[in-house]
Amino acid sequence: MIQESQNKINVFSVLENTILPIVKKAKRYLLAAPIVGAIVFLSVYTSENKTKPVFTSQITFMLEDEILTDQPSMGPGSQILAALGGQGTKNNKAIMVDLGTSNKLVEESLLQSVVIDGKKELLANRYIDKMGFRDQWKENKNQKLMNFYFKENYIIGTDKELDYLLRVFSNQIKKSLKPTVLESGLIKVVFNSNDELFTKLFLETHLNTISNFYINKKTQKSLGLVNYAKRKRDSLFALLNGKTYSLASMQDAGFGRVMRRSMVPEIQTKTDIGILNEQYSESVLALSAATIDWERKKPFISVVDDIRLPLDAEWPKPFKKALSLSIIGMLLSAAAVVGVIFGMGAIDQQRQEFQDSLKKQ
After folding, report:
1. Is the pTM of this model over 0.85?
2. Which contiguous run of DSSP H or E holds residue 354?
3. Which of 94, 173, 175, 330: disulfide with 37, CB 3.0–4.6 Å?
């Protein structure tokens, strides 16, 4: 019992001699906590109040190429070989996803013209205006860029500085551009920005850009055969036309001839015309076959879920965010004040004990 009472006395003495003085000291410094909270609240509220809403657009489309359309006539072995060769449907969809985040294609989309309020406007120029780049240039007094606009006929590679600027825009846009393949096999592309109309128009334009690029690359060989067949047909037609006029001239010049030997060039020309007629007919058939093959190999891309206004928007909440951060700032500052006072008290106590020990010696 005596020991318990001594323990109680020791506890109270510790509270009275150690903790209470620290608490009394902390009262003066704890006033810094609400001051810090007020500063945090005002700064966060001011900055968040200037923040623009974030608009999100989403487009879903279906990709069907020659591998799918030929499935009834393809055996399992052919499908496996096509997949190993990078031509399987899953590989093609993965390629479309990768094309969606290509810097080159994003830049090409930015250089496309769209119609806004009956006027043509480059997406790159609208991006500069609506994303605050022009305001930043004015604040930094960048005279070269303040009144700058991309021209409609601008081609990538003609100006290093403008290409660098386009690449900056492309890298920023890619952070908000997310193409994915859904479980059903459809491809979904999501994009968000601070301008509602730009968000819609850019995603629609970008889908056309990657679709055209994909179709052109998939049918490049077939298109080459079509162009070759056209050139061959045209050259044969020109030769045939020339031989026909040459034969007519020979017949006009040899009108009333008696000697058979004088008709030999005419007979040879008729033979050449017959051969050219056969070759020309074959070239027309070859061109028709190449054109059919080219059309057959064109991938079929169909939009399943298009973009409609108004878009989904996430509006800023400056008061809520400022209040939560100010409370956190107050708690952290109060904890810091208490921690510093406890630390200083412990240091003073150690120093006092050290001086007492020196006196005893």
Report:
1. no
2. helix 318-360
3. 330
Asked if 61 and 301 count as a contact pair (C-beta separation under 8 A), the reply is yes
Q: pLDDT at position 44, please?
A: 62
Cβ contact 40:325 at 8 Å? yes
Mean pLDDT over the full length of the chain: 78
- Parallel, antiparallel, or unpaired: how do β-strands 187-193 and 54-64 relate? antiparallel
CA-to-CA dists, residue 97 to 7, 63, 211, angstroms? 73, 11, 11
Q: What is the pLDDT of residue 253?
A: 72
Q: Is the pLDDT of residue 358 over 90?
A: no
Residue that the structure tokens 């050449």 belong to: 272
Helix, strand, coil % (nearest 5) of the chain? 70, 10, 20
Of 91, 58, 55, the closest CA to residue 307 belongs to 58
3-state secondary structure 35-67: HHHHHHHHHHHHHHHCCCCEEEEEEEEEEECHH
Give the residue, 331 or 217, on which the prediction is more confident: 217
User: Nearest Cα to 341, choosing from 18, 8, 11?
Assistant: 18
